[in-house]
Amino acid sequence: MAPLVSSLQTSPYLTRVDPGAAASVLYLTDTFGPTFPHSETPTDKAVFGILGLDRRIDWHADPRMLDLLIASAREPQDRTDLAQRFGSELVAEAAARQWVQAPVDLCRDYRLVSGEIEVTAHCNWSCRFCPVSTDPKPRQTMPMSLFGEVIAKLAAHGSIDYVTFQFFNEPTLDRYFSDRLTVLAEHGLELALYTNASALTAAKIEALCERKVLRHLIVNLPSVDPERFAALTGSRSYEATTRNLRAAIDAGFRIQIVVNGIGEQLAQNVEQIGRRYLPLGVQVTASATCDRAGDVDGEYFQNVQARGRLTGCGWPVHHANISVTGDLFLCCNDYYQRERFGNIRDGSLHDLMSSDAAVLLRQKVFGVTESAVDFLCRRCHNQALDYPGREFRPIATFG
Asked: What is the DSSP string of 47-59?
């Protein structure tokens, strides 16, 4: 039997839920629409619920357990002191559930649901709300040999629901697009295809139909007014985009149009796009743009300055972000891929996601350890406690 650790701290992955109240988290990034935590109806004796990595609420009837978790949330606590305050059996139960852990083990766990693959580092648009508009990257394409290794390791991991091909790029410009679909089909993985549809040609639509790997199609369409479209995207591809979108609708794909923007113009664009496409069975969703952790300026700049210990985020826990060269990095808002922690060639996905470098990054994101003043997440809107897409709300952040 392993010796008992001398100090314990509450896992920052845990969110407190009160009976009769909605959970303060929402999952926006891994389904066609928002989803909520799984929960059985709490019994009359339930005092609180704990929501963890599995996205299920575990209801509990002993208020002392909640007191224990609150007492241990901000800093490690001596195990003997906790046993004296709350009883050794309750401490043992919390440890067995991994609700409290040795400080070194905090943020070691993760639960991947997607692989976000930068198959090509190029976009033919320069949207005003995207860093590409001011600092486009050099063109690069992921070799098929590297892509095959990425997909094999994602498939072997066992928990991946889908993959994407985008990271501030246009995946349908990829010369290997159809070949990549074949690799996905061979490994039984589905694709959530984010695209501006400008290069979604009839041949690519046919390939998607033949390989049967498309989970859903997410189209960036900021406006159905050609001039406003050109002003927002820096592109004159309106006719190609709308023509290809209509062909995809006719092909029977499950399609979501994401309308990016801010303010009254966004509301107008959503209304106009909805009038045209909702009757065709397409979902239309407004997406209030963010400044990508400070990398977009002008009217889209949010000037986020998170101070003190950070408060958690689902991206480094649920999604494996893989660059065009195979590097693993923090998240979808890390445009310059500043926060890297390994390369897919260096081991299994689990090896990389559980490495000391990956764990340290997550500990910074969840406020277990202090992060530098220039750490990426300090400029990200995901750190706001009232951000509607929070996937974690650590107990230490509750009043």
From this structure: -EEEE-TTSBEEE
Question: Half-sphere exposure of 151 toward its Cβ, with a 13 Å CA cutoff?
Answer: 25
> Could you give the C-alpha distances from 2 to 5, 29, 56, 317, in angstroms and in order?
9, 38, 29, 27
In 160-313, which ranges are E strands? Answer: 162-164, 191-195, 214-220, 255-261, 283-288
Residue 373's Cβ-count burial label (10 Å; 0-12, 13-18, 19+) is exposed
Q: Which residues of the chain have pLDDT under 50?
A: 1
**pLDDT on residue 5:** 78
> How far, CA to CA in Å, does 122 sit from each of 126, 183, 329?
10, 21, 18
Residue 65, φ and ψ in degrees, nearest 5: -65, -45
| Per-residue model confidence (pLDDT) at position 375 | 97
pLDDT tens across 218-229, in order? Answer: 999 999 999 999
Exposure string for 293-324, b = 16+ CB within 10 A, e = fewer? bbbbeeebebebebeebbbbbbbbbbbbbbbb
CA torsion, ordered 205, 210, 216, 217, to nearest 10 deg: -10
pTM for the model: 0.95
Residue 30 has a pLDDT of 58
Judge whether 353 and 112 are in contact, CB under 8 Å. Answer: yes
Secondary structure class of 356 (helix, strand, coil): helix
Distance CA 191, CA 203 (A): 17
Query: For residues 274 and 317, what is the distance between their CA atoms, to the nearest angstrom?
Result: 34
β-sheet bridge partners, residue 255: 217
> How far apart are the C-alpha atoms of 364 and 7, rounded to whole Å?
20
Name the amino acid, one letter, at 274. G
- The closest alpha carbon to 111, from 317, 390, 370, belongs to 317
